[in-house]
Write a structure and sequence with these properties.
This protein has two helices and 21 strands.
């Protein structure tokens, strides 16, 4: 399943410049304009367009079977709710760097729907204290007659400036009927729940539910229901005030690994020694090759065989911002 690792957040940016701050206390401005030499972008600031929470798929934690998941993914009423966010502001692709791109093999001409705006920002948004959180949709405009929302991101901003972004929705249709999906729910306390699903020859994988919270800094961080020691198949460490704190060990598939550049690493799994403060990355993160054996029957990793291999690269963070990456 494609995931957005927190390390990727640091490369997410809008190439906005020349932001006009011409405002007066006596004049209400409903949109903030960001312009570049390639186009303009608007953040709606009209508080009447703030969304009432909860919003999303409220029962995703109860959908554990293929039938129940498919009924949610194909729910026409929910799809109408998503489109009702009023995705009206088109964004040129070269104005935003997306953290993930799926390879699309075209069974016919790639000019299908080429004039359709692929990336749009919704007029409706979340009001969160001093922050405004916007919905950005990425449409699939190829392979299918009717474009549809393939990915949706939450983008946190303050005073019109981008702080962070997080993918919350996915409807990726792959080859041979394979698919990857993410459904979301945002509760009244602004806790964001994400549920990933993978449809393969297995034929169905239900990923663990993950929760996120918008920190006082405006960044998104993992949220845990309980404090204290935490451990699952992928990560272990200490939780404090519902967020990661101190040293953590994480054994996960790493989207930053270029297997063509490093052919010795036959899979993208890494063994990460990370450090967090108040839920955000800090200090030096060390990524090692994750050594593991696989089941001959299922091809899945055998967790009890995992151990740390050679050092691949390091990342240096300051207050959640990636400052430097070095490969060894």
């Amino acid at each position: 399943m494609y995931k957005i690792n927190i390390a990727c957040f640091t490369v997410l940016f809008f190439l906005f410049s020349c932001y006009s701050k011409a405002q007066t206390e006596s004049k209400a401005i409903n949109a903030e304009t960001h312009s570049t030499d390639k186009g303009s972008f608007f953040f709606n600031t009209n508080k009447t367009d703030c969304i009432t929470l909860p919003f999303g798929y409220s029962d995703i934690s109860k959908r554990t079977t293929v039938e129940s998941v498919l009924s949610a993914i194909q729910d026409e009423n929910k799809l109408k709710e998503l489109n009702a966010l009023q995705f009206e502001k088109a964004i040129k692709k070269d104005l935003v760097l997306l953290p993930e791109e799926y390879d699309v093999s075209l069974p016919f001409s790639n000019t299908v729907n080429e004039k359709y705006d692929r990336i749009k920002m919704a007029s409706d948004f979340l009001c969160y204290g001093d922050y405004s959180v916007y919905f950005m949709a990425v449409y699939n405009t190829v392979r299918y007659t009717q474009p549809f929302i393939e990915k949706m991101y939450l983008i946190s901003t303050k005073d019109g400036k981008l702080i962070d972004m997080k993918r919350i929705y996915l409807n990726h249709q792959g080859e041979m009927g394979f698919a990857n999906n993410t459904l979301f729910n945002i509760d009244k306390n602004y806790i964001i729940s994400l549920q990933d699903y993978e449809f393969t020859e297995s034929p169905f994988t239900l990923k663990p539910l993950q929760k996120y919270q918008i920190l006082p800094s405006g960044k998104f961080a993992r949220y845990y229901d309980h404090d204290g020691p935490y451990k699952n198949d992928e990560e272990q460490g200490m939780v404090k005030n519902h967020h990661k704190e101190g040293k953590w060990i994480e054994s996960k598939s790493n989207g930053s690994m270029d297997l063509q550049k490093y052919p010795d690493f036959t899979d993208p799994y890494t063994y990460l020694e990370a450090e967090y403060k108040n839920g955000l990355p800090v200090g030096t993160w060390k990524f090692y090759k994750l050594l593991q054996k696989y089941s001959e029957e299922t091809g899945e990793p055998l967790l009890n065989t995992r151990k740390k291999g050679s050092l691949i690269y390091t990342e240096m963070y300051r207050e959640g911002v990636l400052e430097k990456r070095e490969f060894h």
